[in-house]
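Human: Not sure, check this?
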Amino acid sequence: MKNNGQKKVLSTLALTMISIAGIVNLRNLPIMAGVGFSALFFYILAALFFLLPSAFVCAELASLFPEAGGLYLWVEKAFGAKAGFFAIWSEWFNNVIGVPATLSFIAAAVAYSFIPHLSHHKVAMFLVMLVILWGSTLFNFLGIKASSRLNIIGALFGSILPTLIITILGFVWIYSGHIAQISFSWHALVPKWHFANVAFFIGVLSGYSGMQITAFHIQNVKNPKYTFPRAIFFATILILAITIFGSLAIGLVVPSQKLSLVSGVMDGFLGFFTAFHMTWALYILAGLIAISGISTLSAWLLAPARGLSVAARDGHFPRWCAHENSRGMPTNILVLQALIGTALASLFLFIPSLSEAFWLLVVLTSQFTLVMYLLVFSAAIKLRYKYSKRPNLFCMPGGNLGLWVIAGSSIIVCSLGVILGYVPPKNLHIHKVFDYEFIVLSGNLLYVLLPLLIYRKRS
């Protein structure tokens, strides 16, 4: 009992910071900066129907099943082993597909730090991306202690600090009388409702995924019935503030027609620092953002790899996937991920626009994430009734009715997000719509068929 008591060390503040570190990613800010003031509308909509519901659902499921397994265990308990396997596959495959998008963002930050013109040369960017990918992969061989230290430094000084700085610069920009590239009006707030305009909404949903990280700490939380709601509330407010003000700040100085999804964050900082005669600070900020991106990449390379290694030990994947080095790191899976990431990063060489390649990867990872959450939200409803008598440290507000409203509305929004992935956003000016839709459809078919074939073979 004494040990258990010592484990409950996470307060509201600690849980709030974990949520922010797990969700806030500067890479996503340019996605909504291009839609102007209507970004506020999309962010609030995503918070109400995805960010908050995912936090409540994951917190309840983690407290209902505090043992190891996470998404795999939740979905398996609700719908069986096959569905549980598909859930863990979704988590791993989604992260692998998302690696090139993260790499492009880091490479752009590195380019701004040392050779600004590098971001316009595909081959050079590709080579930088490979160095970062394989360097991060090999760094994870050193063990979890080294990786965790890098993650803490990157989250604090590379994500939160730069976002606060660009937000403050945005307010200074407005009050100092500079020309704003965004129209702050009611007409600009509410978007025109057709698919080409709201397609960016899928990027917002994906950018708000990750709240499930807090749920895995349920056993270490002081008084979870009260701590979780407070932490979720504070985290949601802070995440909304950072993403909204960060995106609008970039949109203030970078015209939507010139906004790059790859280098948009750095373009925003460049606009501010040039106007305020602080260009020297750009290199410092770019370096911090690069460190942040590398730490995030390192974390997401390692976490799903370890999950897949566990699945391999349970017989769902080939046995060689379970191999670990002397430091407990799944080296075979890490190398496999790096090889897949290298192949996917080559998209940046063959697709005409870096922003288009970036968006395609964002779309695919967003769709995979939303399908995974469809399983989680559905599992939450079934498990509430299936295990109604099992002790639970945290339940969503509103009882069964609240569960149906929260999880049900989120299921509808996630389904809509998957459909929006097939519609190219108007702001990107994608001319070959058929090629775009073909790539998205092919990615989805691969995503669905591969786990079915693997599961059938392993069974």
